[in-house]
Specification:
With 190 residues, this protein is an alpha+beta fold. The chain folds into 2 domains: 36 residues, no CATH class; 146 residues, tt1808, chain A (Alpha-Beta Complex), CATH 3.90.1570. Helix content is 22%, strand content 31%. The protein has 5 helices and 13 strands. A hairpin with a 4-residue loop joins strand 4 and strand 5.
């Protein structure tokens, strides 16, 4: 559901004021407010498992993990979005004093849904790649043990790793953590 008409353009400031008072989360793309839909049990379990593992492994390290309520701004795309899990390291940077819009994530995790899989794989990843801070991007399937990992190389190119099976492991160099697919998919029926 959009809050934009062809005669209106919602500014980022108007969006943030609206969003901070809203009962439900909305994303923002280039002047348009877009309502977010709810997530399935599998989606919630997977995102929660990833967050829990990262939170546990990041104790004592200079990084912070956030679950789906931390908004991320991609200024180059005029986009505000809510990744399923996001990690910032060293000094997290926020848009303003509300400290609810992260500007410098190093790791973003998206759990794929039928309705968003193509967008998360292509367009959204294209927007995320413009973030200078972003070092890794994970796409997590719901129906099978399968994670696609993109890692930014020193020359700016992205290296893809395809991890499958319950015995799979994901080395997250950006945050010094390891995710085991068995943990990512704990309690998720396949």
């Amino acid at each position: 559901m959009s809050r934009k008409t062809k005669d209106s353009y919602v500014t980022p400031e108007e969006y943030l004021a609206f969003e901070r008072a809203a009962e439900h989360k909305n994303e923002y793309f280039d002047g348009e407010i877009v309502a977010m839909t709810g997530a399935s049990r599998k989606h919630n379990l997977i995102a929660g498992n990833v967050f829990a593992e990262l939170k546990r492994q990041l104790r004592g390290k200079p990084c912070e993990a956030y679950i789906s309520d931390m908004r991320v701004r991609i200024q180059s795309a005029n986009l505000y979005t809510y990744p399923d899990v996001v990690v910032a390291c060293d000094a997290p940077e926020f848009e303003d004093a509300e400290v609810d819009t992260l500007l410098n994530p190093v790791l973003i995790v998206e759990v794929l849904s039928k309705s968003t899989a193509s967008y998360d794989r292509v367009e959204k990843f294209g927007y995320y790649r413009t973030l200078p801070s972003l070092e890794e991007y994970l796409l997590v399937e719901q129906a099978q043990y399968h994670v696609v990992q993109y890692v930014r190389q020193k020359d700016g190119r992205w290296l893809l790793a395809d991890i499958r099976g319950a015995e799979g492991r994901i080395e997250l160099s950006s945050v010094g953590c390891v995710l085991k697919l068995a943990d990512v998919y704990e309690r998720v029926e396949m």
